[in-house]
Amino acid sequence: MIVTTSPKPDDALRETAKRLARFLGARLVPRKKRSIARLMREEGTDTVLVVTAEGPRLYRAGVERPFVYHPNTAMIRMRHLLRGDTDPMVELMEIRPGDRVLDCTLGLAADAAVLSLAVGEGGEVVGLESEPLIAAVVAEGLRTYSSGSAAIDAALRRIRVVCADHLDYLRQCADRSFDVVYFDPMFRRPVEASSGIGSLRPFANPAPLSPEAVREARRVARRMVVMKERQGSAEFARLGFAEVHEVGNSVAYGIIRVDAP
Ligand SMILES: C[S@@+](CC[C@H](N)C(=O)[O-])C[C@H]1O[C@@H](n2cnc3c(N)ncnc32)[C@H](O)[C@@H]1O
């Protein structure tokens, strides 16, 4: 893969491109007014990350739309929270200001953004993403996206993005070091209407959640381990989530409550 910029980059874009190329261990190439198809052909690659003033755009040969950061469903959910309304996920997790939440499957960080707003300045959301390309695009988006709301932008900036496989990361966490540990793996059967996640899918880690990761999460969580899946998914029973709450028409949250010590 290669990293490049939009055709007329300023110094800030050049610096961002350099930083992302270093993070990804990718070649940085000058754009020279070339189209994406021509870049792929001339540079012999099928994956191009283009750093633009509107954020990075990730192109892959054969994939119709580039992957870009956007807050997806988070914006409307965060506006509800700011109005004093509730969010079903925040309610189920019993989130309080000051909580620490480990989001083991960051993706577009829509859930992480809602959680970050809910835990507030005194809390912390750490978001783990195993795929460096997704981590790079989303971390950059969280750093620069402008929503028009200072409270929402601050919540996006506070999310700590870590590029790591969640099992590796969980194994290094102390017992009971996060209030909630959350998993939202790629659904075994995708929800077609979920177009926000559609653009992420070609770049995402499709692996099912492992029982080992759930076991580690139980050790690391102080209050509960939560998994989002499709309603009726066999994953809940396979992974030991006995308490399941359906929300809306398609998704459900499985909860494992962690006993007090
Ligand atoms: C369904 S998406 C999560 C969507 C996210 N909850 C949101 O609100 O945008 C799942 C994400 O988890 C990542 N992932 C899957 N397995 C992982 C693992 N073992 N460690 C870290 N990230 C993982 C995928 O690459 C993908 O980006």
From TrEMBL:
GO molecular function: rRNA (guanine-N2-)-methyltransferase activity
UniProt-listed InterPro entries: 16SrRNA_methylTrfase_J, SAM-dependent_MTases_sf
Top-level division of the source organism's lineage: Bacteria
CDD domains membership: AdoMet_MTases
One Pfam assignment: SAM_MT
SUPFAM superfamilies noted in UniProt: S-adenosyl-L-methionine-dependent methyltransferases (SSF53335)
Protein name: SAM-dependent methyltransferase
Lineage per the UniProt record: Bacteria, Bacillati, Bacillota, Bacilli, Bacillales
Gene: ypiP
